[in-house]
Amino acid sequence: MYYPFSWLKSLLRIAAFYAIVVAAGLYFDEPTLAIALGSSWLLGFYCWQLYRFNRWVWHSKKMTPPKANGFWEHIYEGVYYIQRRNRRKRKELTKLVKRFREGSEALPDATVVVDANASIVWCNRLARIELGLKWPQDNGRRIDNLIRHPNFIEFFHSGDYDFPIEIPSPSNIQKIFEYRIVPYGDKHLLLIARDVTRLTQLEQMRKDFVANVSHELRTPLTVLNGYLEMLPNVDEIPPAFLNKALVEMRSQSERMQNLVEELLVLSRIEASSERVFEKVVKVPRILEAIRSEATTLNSDKQHQLTFDINPKLEVYGIETELRSAFSNLIFNAINYTPAKGKIHIAWQLKNGKAQFSVTDNGEGISEKHLNRLTERFYRVDKARSRKTGGSGLGLSIVKHVLTHHNSKLDIASEVGKGSCFSFSFSNELIVSSVKHTALKL
Ligand code: ADP
Question: Which residues line the pocket of ligand 1, CB cutoff 6 A?
Answer without folding.
Answer: 328, 332-333, 336, 360, 362, 365, 373, 378-381, 385, 390-396, 419
